[in-house]
Amino acid sequence: MKNSITAITLFIISFFLHESCFGQASKKTKFKVLVLYENGGHHLAFSKAAKPWLNKLAAGNNFTIDYIENTKTINESLLNQYRLFIQLDYPPYTWSEESMKAFQKYINDGRGGWIGLHHAALLGEFDGYPIWNWFSDFMGGIRFVNYIPDFASAKVIVEDKVHPVMKGVPADFLVQKEEWYTYDKSPRKNVHVLASVDESTYQPDSKIKMGDHPVVWTNEHFASRNVYIFMGHSPDLFNNKAYTALFKNAILWASNKK
């Protein structure tokens, strides 16, 4: 009888230990994300709002995030540790030659995905730095021209409703406060446009317009999954359910290889 009780007890203990180990294994990190963000200037408030939102999303989806404030540490060895690189309002200049080459290889070889927000497409000559031609091509061959300095609200129109990045995103949604960059041309012929802004809905109205005005797109000519989301100035965007759905979808999609 004692032997039977002992055997049953050991079986029960073994069962719960197995379940505990299985539960811990299921919570293992799925992938790592590197976030390059601006820690100063007029995008600081957005960065401060983004970090807790990203951290909560990471905890709920079993991935981890490392944050860096500049490109000094970016090289091939660093980037190879991550399945996704998020350029959180960090511009495409002030990068070293090594960091630019490492990033280009990361994207060209499809080693991981990329998401760029807002300032990531500030392409031109700024602060004594030349335009990064490869990055301009990556963004569809565009160059920054102007922006609405006093901000405007506007309606964003989803163009590709079946793309995974747009899952659960309304057919159109309002962005309350944005600068709405304009470029020397629309990137449409070189990229897959997912959403555009309806310039006729600007409030207040502005003369700073470009006609065909994409604001979310992916460049399918590159090996890495990539998404550019223009909206990314105001911290209030993290109270916009359509925007957070878009950003979350982009992260989960771009972090998976083609």
What does this structure look like?
The protein has 258 residues and is an alpha/beta fold. About 9% of the residues have low confidence.
Low-confidence parts: 5-26
What about the largest sheet? 9 strands, mixed
Helix content: 25-40%
Give the C-level CATH assignment.
Answer: Alpha Beta
Task: Report the portion of residues in β strands.
Answer: 15-25%
Q: How many DSSP H or I helices?
A: 6
Order of neighbouring strands in the sheet with most strands: 2-1-3-4-11-10-9-6-7
- Kindly report the CATH topology: Rossmann fold
CATH superfamily membership, which one? Class I glutamine amidotransferase (GATase) domain
User: How many DSSP-defined strands?
Assistant: 11
Measure the end-to-end span.
60 Å
CATH architecture: 3-Layer(aba) Sandwich
Structural domain count:
1
Structural shape: globular
- Give the overall average pLDDT: 91
| Secondary-structure element string | HEHEHEHEHEEEEEEEH
Short description:
With 258 residues, this protein is α/β, with parallel strands linked by helices. 31% of the residues lie in helices and 24% in strands. The protein has one domain: Class I glutamine amidotransferase (GATase) domain (Rossmann fold, 3-Layer(aba) Sandwich).
List the helices and strands and how they pair.
Layout: H1 2-26, E1 31-37, H2 44-61, E2 63-68, H3 76-79, E3 84-88, H4 97-108, E4 113-117, H5 133-138, E5 144-146, E6 152-158, E7 172-178, E8 182-183, E9 192-203, E10 214-218, E11 226-229, H6 241-254
